[in-house]
Specification:
- The complex is a heterotrimer of chains A (about 350), B (about 220) and C (about 290).
- Chain A contains ten helices and 13 strands.
- Chain A is of the alpha/beta class and about 350 residues long.
- Chain A has a six-stranded parallel β-sheet, sandwiched between helices. In chain A, strands 4-3-6-7 form a four-stranded antiparallel β-sheet, with no helix packed on it. A three-stranded antiparallel β-sheet of chain A has the order 1-2-5, with no helix packed on it.
- The two termini of chain A are about 60 Å apart.
- By secondary structure, chain C is of the alpha/beta class.
- Chain C contains eleven helices and six strands.
- In chain C, about 45% of the residues are buried.
- Classes of the chains: A alpha/beta (about 350), B mainly alpha (about 220), C alpha/beta (about 290).
Chain lengths: ~350, ~220, ~290
């Protein structure tokens, strides 16, 4: 009797309100256990989580520190589990009540991504609308992009001087958006250089990018009726090592002395090394990248720089293809929608923070 | 068919690439992981062979026609062959059957990489400081209001991050921090929004086959 | 006037030479520069300092030799902080290259503490006070896998020991037991930790980054996705300052010593820019005078 009374006096409070549920928006195999903190949380070591599978004995499955009220357990799907949480102190355990049984199941749709999906559908719908408008013959205005207007000037200059053009695609892999945008521009520039028979040098830093670039240049020359111009030694793979590639590009610029350099694609720290070396040779330089950190270097060292999405718009701008222009209009409208939402949200945020508004609360 | 088949492949794989973000089910996630981790890697491994063949052909041609600096092509080819043999037959740390140690001199591929490639890469990276100096000396001119603002901001940041900024004014480091925190981030965010939307639009155009420049032009 | 015009059109090789001397001199005569600690570094320090006893500090060593001068002092300062406060550390790397550099930093700080230790309890013991998990390809595996179980992703550590046999790892299951993860990277690895691990599992993330990529990370720091930031050499020096002043731990401060070179380089570039602009304005004025 005394022992029972003493045990009652010195017992610590167990956690309460234990609830277990299938972890939402996952591929199954996970149950989340939640509970309310023990009132003696400050003095315990932590909580042990026990699990029973289909009514069998409870096994210890996890430990979590004090102050925490949530634990994710790895489970097998379609098996009923029940949980208990024990407050642990000096090897003594104070158990909670048992949770209701729960089964983990895989979800087919991630509900957390709903807003993202809606946003994507709306944005794609806007783009498709404008593409459709372009298809119907509506004239779409695109503002002047100086860097792209300079492409003709650069090609012309190289032709007059009898020097080649260097086209550098950066160190991106073939699935990078900047590299894909660069492919699009390469095709257009290859057609222009083909018309004037100006040599085009395209050193690449990735084998897959090399194979695609080679085919693009070959097809571009074929499109303008000059397949004989294609020189497989002018489009080649150098190395995938970042600075070795930069050294190779520098070497090409100093030896071949191209009249125009294009740096279009994904670049990292090697951007300034290449651009500054090109500037020292006196070439006209046009750069374009979506790497924000490299933009200042290109702006400083190059004559023209395509910033961010100007790079993605380049293909449409150069070719003047209506469908491509339509997509750019759609993109711009999408940006206006986002900016409007941001502006409205900012105004609301500012208004709710004015101290004077406290008078009305 | 020559153009339709790649366009069809791009459409199918493009849609398949979007789906994993919305469907957490293990069946699809495992399929997507297999596609990215296995299929793409195998493809890249074969593409390396094409790249290397191209590289060797370019330099072989340079040697044959005795073009400018053709001697350096020998350096490249010999380096390629020697490191290929050491790596393939000697292993990363000399664990395979080719001996990669003579007395105390080690020449396994890891040693070669750490002692040749890494210092060379570090040297090239270190050159950046000098190129930055010459680029800013040559190009930073207060020609207009915008370039003057740019110059002013550059001075504030360059001095603000130094320990001596505190001695010039106690407010200078905080002001430099404010320029990095507020106007800089605002500008970068604006560019990031544009890039993100541009990326979605470009991807959509490619998946739907509207953008076909990567195929070499339209027919 | 002619002098100014000459100075504003210097051969770039002279610029390189002057810069080289300016950078080398403070390295030959090193001195520790004291710095004012800014908020991003202070927040990171406080976040590490507040790690409870039952959680660990996880450090992702993700820099290569090119960014070593900026990043290694960060790693060393973090380790000194953790070991001084008896915070347990798990070190890892997402790639192979930084493994040797991570080991170098761990070995250096461990030796510093063990040389000062007076008892077994004071010492820094592998397996009890820190573990080096090593590397697991591809990078996405630890980013997502450690949210479920760290020892399942890293079944063996860098040295080949079973991770579940190490004393420290017996009570460390997954990201729930990580107080904060600090990614030291010259690239975008900290953003991956935020995008994958923090989004899925809620782990707090801090970052140590190179100065040139700072602008890319500030927006994530502003939104609270990074608990704190160390930026470049100066960020490392600020953390060293905090370790010395708040924890009374005096050791060699490499980043603080290098600030002398940084200062000299910045001032040299500013001087050249000013000279260039003075020459530009002088020429512009003389051209206007000729036109009149």
């Amino acid at each position: 009797m005394t022992f029972v009374i003493l045990a009652g006096i010195f017992a610590l409070a167990p956690p309460t309100g234990v609830n277990a549920y299938d972890t939402p928006n996952d591929g199954g195999g996970s149950v989340t256990v939640e509970w309310q903190l023990s009132s003696d949380d400050a003095i315990i070591e932590g909580y042990e989580i026990y699990r029973s599978e289909e009514g069998k004995d409870y096994d210890l499955v996890g430990f979590i520190g004090r102050g925490r009220t949530r634990y994710e357990d790895e489970t097998e799907n379609d098996i009923a589990y029940t949980y208990q949480v024990a407050a642990l102190n000096n090897s003594e355990r104070f158990f909670s009540e048992t949770s209701p049984p729960v089964m983990s199941k895989p979800q087919l749709f991630d509900r957390d991504a709903t807003m993202l999906l809606i946003g994507m559908i709306i944005f794609c719908a806007i783009i498709l609308y404008f593409i459709n408008q372009a298809r119907r013959g509506k004239k779409l205005f695109i503002r002047k992009i100086t860097g792209l207007d300079a492409v003709d000037e650069a090609v012309g200059r190289a032709t007059e001087m009898g020097r080649p053009i260097l086209y550098c695609m950066g160190i991106g892999l073939v699935d990078y958006i900047a590299t894909i945008a660069s492919f699009n521009i390469l095709g257009e520039i290859a057609k222009k250089t083909g018309q004037y028979e100006t040599p085009l040098i395209v050193p690449t830093s990735d084998p897959v990018v090399y194979t695609v670039a080679r085919e693009i240049v070959k097809e571009s020359y074929a499109t303008i009726g000059r397949p004989d111009l294609f020189d497989s030694d002018k489009v080649y793979f150098v190395t995938d090592s970042q600075f070795a590639y930069a050294a190779a590009i520098d070497g090409v610029m100093l030896r071949e002395k191209p009249a125009a350099n294009f740096f279009i694609g994904y670049f990292k720290a090697e951007s300034l090394i290449m651009a500054e070396t090109g500037a020292s040779t006196g070439a006209i330089q046009i750069a374009g990248t979506d790497q924000i950190t490299q933009l200042p270097f290109f702006v400083t060292a190059c004559d023209f720089t395509l910033i961010g999405e100007e790079l993605y718009a380049a293909s449409a701008y150069i070719s003047k293809e209506p469908l491509l222009l339509g997509a750019i209009k759609g993109e711009d409208l999408g940006k206006i929608v986002i900016l409007s939402i941001l502006a409205i949200a900012s105004v609301i945020g500012l208004l709710t923070r004015f101290p004077i508004l406290n008078l009305f609360r | 068919m020559k153009r339709r088949f790649p366009l069809l492949l791009v459409f199918i794989f493009g849609i398949m690439g979007i789906i994993p973000y919305y469907i957490p089910h293990a069946a699809y996630q495992n399929f997507d992981n297999g596609l990215r981790n296995d299929f793409l890697r195998i493809l890249s491994a074969f593409a390396i062979i094409l790249g290397l063949v191209s590289l060797m052909r370019v330099h072989h041609d340079k040697i044959k026609r005795k073009r400018e600096n053709w001697q350096f092509s020998y350096v490249l080819i010999i380096g390629f062959v020697v490191s290929g043999i050491i790596g393939l037959l000697g292993g990363v740390e000399g664990e395979l059957f080719l001996p990669t140690r003579i007395a105390g001199f080690q020449f396994d591929i890891q040693t070669l990489y750490l002692n040749i490639i890494v210092p060379l890469g570090s040297t090239m990276f270190a050159l950046l400081a000098f190129f930055m100096a010459s680029a800013s000396y040559r190009a930073f001119r207060a020609r207009s209001l915008e370039s003057s603002l740019l110059l002013g901001a550059a001075f504030i940041i360059m001095i603000g991050v130094l320990p001596l900024a505190d001695r010039i004014s106690t407010h200078l480091p905080s002001f430099a921090q404010w320029v990095m925190d507020i106007p800089n981030v605002a500008a970068k965010r604006g560019i990031t929004f544009g890039i993100a939307l541009g990326g979605i639009a470009t991807s959509l155009k490619i998946i739907l086959g509207i953008e076909r420049s990567w195929l070499g032009g339209k027919e | 006037m002619k002098v100014i015009e000459y100075l504003s059109q210097l051969d770039r090789r002279i610029v390189y030479l002057v810069l080289a001397f300016a950078v080398m001199l403070p390295l030959i005569i090193p001195s520790v520069q004291r710095v004012r600690v800014m908020t991003p570094v202070a927040k990171l320090f406080n976040a590490v300092d507040a790690i409870p006893d039952d959680r660990i500090l996880m450090i992702d060593f993700d820099y290569d030799p090119q960014t070593l001068p900026e990043m290694e002092p960060m790693g060393i300062a973090l380790l000194r902080h953790a070991f001084q406060k008896r915070i347990r550390v798990a070190a890892l790397s997402l790639y192979v290259q930084p493994l040797g550099l991570a080991k170098r930093a761990l070995d250096q700080v461990t030796e510093e503490f063990n040389q000062r230790a007076t008892s077994y309890a004071d010492s820094v013991i592998y397996g009890r006070d820190y573990v080096f998990l090593g590397w697991q390809p591809p990078p996405i595996v630890p980013l997502l896998g450690m949210g479920i179980s760290i020892t399942s992703v890293y079944t063996r550590d860098y040295y080949g020991y079973r991770t579940d046999s190490l004393p420290m790892m017996r009570r460390v299951r997954n990201f729930n037991d990580v107080g904060i993860l600090v990614s030291l990277s010259g690239a975008t690895a900290p953003l991956w930790w935020v995008a994958y691990s923090q989004t899925r599992f809620g782990v707090a993330v801090g970052a140590g980054i190179t100065a040139v990529s700072a602008s890319e990370f500030y927006q994530y720091y502003q939104t609270g996705q990074f608990s704190g930031l160390m930026i470049g050499m100066k960020g490392a020096a600020e953390y060293e300052e905090l370790v010395e002043t708040k924890l009374m731990l005096v050791d060699r401060r490499k980043a603080s010593e290098a600030l002398g070179s940084l200062t000299a380089a910045h001032l040299t570039m500013i001087a050249f820019i000013i000279i260039g602009n003075v020459g530009y304005f002088v020429r512009r004025r003389s051209r206007k005078g000729v036109v009149k």
